[in-house]
Amino acid sequence: MFLLLFLSSFSFGQTQQPTCNCPPNEFGLSNAKADTVFHLSDGKSVALCGSRNTNVSKGRTFYSGFVLAACGEAHVIKFWGAMLECQLHVHHDTLIVETLERLPAGKNMRYKWIAWTIERIYFRNGKAVNDFSVNRHIPRYTKQEIRSAILQYEKMGETLSNANMEVADKLFMSAISGSVKARIYLKDFNHYFDGLDGDYLEWYDGLMQKLKLWDTGTDRK
Asked: In sequence order, what are the residues at sequence separation of 6 or more whose Cβ sits closer than 8 angstroms to the Cβ of residue 180?
């Protein structure tokens, strides 16, 4: 009987855990039940409300169209759009959000998912801090791979195709690997075909935005 009374008193004496539903927001995820809750080593917990996908890459869980919110807080930390593919993990007192891109950065210039940007979310004086950076550890092309990408560009036909757009991806990888010539070719790519439109223009604009981000290191417009 004494033990039951003690446990009852102990239970009522504890601070209730904050709710981990996401607070009202403008992204259509108001009061949504958390898909995942990440627990940091400093006692803070962060809820993710949005979509998960296990079919993008075997054995990996990607998230898109989601918000993050500190449990019990009235405002979300940030929204990540539906067109993004992200992976999240905890490192001590920090939640790490990696936005991934599929680029020809693998062996023999094969496509693979790589972390393109990294955001480190932690708490200082109870407030969420979000440190954003471009991943500077992306594999660089060798001189031989750069020469191959440049040669592929110089031998392209005049009919626009997915294969030619993949050459643009390789020029991008060559440019961030230090090739001035590849950078010039990439910037001229749009004019090579007398302008791009539709999905191809979106593809190319995405590369140019990434190149700008690589040069500036910031996601601010």
From this structure: none
| Termini Cα distance of the chain | 65
Render pLDDT for 1-24 as a digit per residue (tens, 0 to 9). Answer: 444 443 333 333 333 345 688 888
| Residue 8: predicted pLDDT | 39
Q: How many CA atoms lie within 13 A of 3 on its CB side?
A: 0
**What's the rounded Cα separation, in Å, for the pair 68 and 50?**
9
Find residue 133's DSSP bridge partners.
Answer: 118
Mean pLDDT of 147-175: 95
- Which comes out higher in pLDDT, residue 11 or 37? 37
Beta carbons within 8 Å of 24's beta carbon, 6+ residues apart: 30, 31, 74
Phi-psi region of 126 (alpha: psi -120 to 50; beta: other; left: phi over 0): left
Task: Please report, rounded to a whole number, the percentage of residues in the chain having pLDDT higher than 70.
Answer: 90
Q: Where are the domains of the chain?
A: 14-134, 143-216
pLDDT at 143: 98
CA distance 18 to 111: 42
- Where b means 16+ CB within 10 Å and e means fewer, 168-186 reads bbbbbbbbbbebeebbebb
